[in-house]
Amino acid sequence: MEKNDGSSDKIRLSDDEWRKRLGAERFSILREKGTERPGTGKYYHFKGQGVFICGACGQELFASETKYDSGSGWPSFWEPLSPDSIEEHDDGSHFMRRIEVVCSRCGSHLGHVFEDGPKPTGLRYCINSASLDFKPKG
Ligand code: FE
Questions:
Q1: What domains can be seen in the chain, in order of their start residue?
Q2: pLDDT 10s digit of each residue in the chain, 138 long?
Q3: Where do the H-state alpha helices sit in 1-138?
Q4: Ligand 1 centre from 121 Cα, in Å?
Q5: Residue 112 contacts residue 94 (beta carbons within 8 Å)
Q6: Ligand 1 mean position, distance from CA 116 (Å)
Q7: pTM for the structure as a whole
Q8: Catalytic residues
């Protein structure tokens, strides 16, 4: 796996390498900012206890304790595991102003964050199941 200059552990791969690693469907979401159809993702109703990790690089992203049912059709969290595990970018696509959420280590697209979440943060991290894998507790 190619890394950058050593000042961080960021992961940089070419599109071809990502496509090979992820397969066509996950590539389209993680690397081309796609969105899975609402209600279809495998983690939408998932109630397991553990940590959700980046589907592209394995970085830990969200704890199951912060997952809640938003009714949106996508897995929703009110807080990332750590502020350092994600990055947020302005997204003006599809005639909307949204904030895109990406993995801070590999830059892969995870979903968006909205300000209509529950307490204590009031945030809703709306994340594609296809962008995640799951590590059970213990
Ligand atoms: Fe990642």
A1: 15-136 (2.170.150.20)
A2: 444 444 468 999 999 999 999 999 999 999 999 999 999 999 999 999 999 999 999 999 999 999 999 999 999 999 999 999 999 999 999 999 999 999 999 999 999 999 999 999 999 999 999 999 999 998
A3: 15-30
A4: 23
A5: no
A6: 25
A7: 0.92
A8: 126
